[in-house]
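Record now logged for everyone:
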Amino acid sequence: MSTMQVVHMHAHGGPEVLKVEEIERPEPGPGEALVRVLGVSVNHLDLWVRRGMPGVKIPFPRIPGSDGTGEVVALGPDTNGPAPGTRVVIEPGMSSGKSPEDECGMDHLAPDYGIRGEHCDGLDREYVAVETRYLLPLPEGVDPVQAASVPLVFVTAYGMLVTRARLQAGETVLVLGGASGVGSAAIQIAKERGARVIATAGSEEKRRLAAELGAEEVLDHCQEGWGQEVKRWSERRGVDVVFEHVGPATWKTSMGVLARGGRLVTCGGTTGPMVQVALPHLFIKNQSILGATMGPRTAFPEIFAKLAAGAYRPVVDRVMALSEVQEAHRLLEDRAVVGKIVLLPGK
């Protein structure tokens, strides 16, 4: 019997609930490929799943890890797909593929849509059996370990800016937390699409990174009055799009700097779930508040083509062994990460 290294959660709690164990290696079934995981990234979603989310029941044991890259080892019976030896991107989301949302290219809105590591076992392991339709060959020359940091955050940022906010060239965008995984992706997507970007970050190192990625100006959102600086930068007009994922700590200011006809788009709230909205400001200024979850899988070929062409770059803070998963969670929880952490299975 062949075994593999895997991270298991047997209960909700702190990083100490993450246990590195040995289990039997899976066999690919019809329509599946056995993939050796080359890198798996750590996302805020992993922290939320580990801690437990109200109303979300997680069966135990659960393997975390939403996105990564790998190498095809074998195909299941009567299966067409990338040949063994092909390096692939493992998409983080999955659905039946049969809903009206799937058929119109909006799979992430399907009623049966799920995310690896939350709705099923994830990629914090050495090998995974996965449907071949969720494997995208990695473009030539793209490093698989660096690329493991890309899928979840870039498809989320794409879904927010392109699918929901319908960002146009020449518009202005405020990106909160510009050195985070999703924030660093948002700066690059907005800049590449011809928008002007102002960002925020909480340390000098993070502000420097946001500027390197294309933000014209980067503010410290820990300092009072940063909203006035956004207004100054936008010549008192405000910004067309606010890219929000922080929540209560920044929400009031984010709404305050939104221009007439502007769109605030959010994918979550790392500082809490509840915010307040001043309705007169919303309707008098004809503004929109948009929610976004993930993004369409049709975006992945475009994302990785731009990555291969150098238009996008992975932002990896550090690479760690999968056996150091507890420390990786602590670092992300303590906001000691600039970009993403990638874990290497088998180490």
